[in-house]
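1st attempt posting a full record on here, be nice pls
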Amino acid sequence: RELLERHSSVENVKGFMGDRLTFGHVVNIVLPFMCAQAGVPRMPDSVRGAMNKLRQLRNDLVHKGERRASISKAESGEALCAAVFGFEYVKYVRPQLLERLK
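the predicted structure (as tokens):
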């Protein structure tokens, strides 16, 4: 727990330690921790935050059946960019993590 809290918020680690592993846990806790341990640059907080917003929109729709009345073009663009940048970030760090965390 203490080691994880060096790289993620106390609240995120608390949720992670008591729940099942979710996409949010991976993005907010596991990936930053692994990158820090391997000396790999972390995902920028702005990208991670935008991915969390997109994840929340998706979860509201899928799990609660809730849909916001409208999503602005700016929000749509931010969500799309977050998904693309997040995907490209993982493609960038994956080989480094596999090599350094053997």
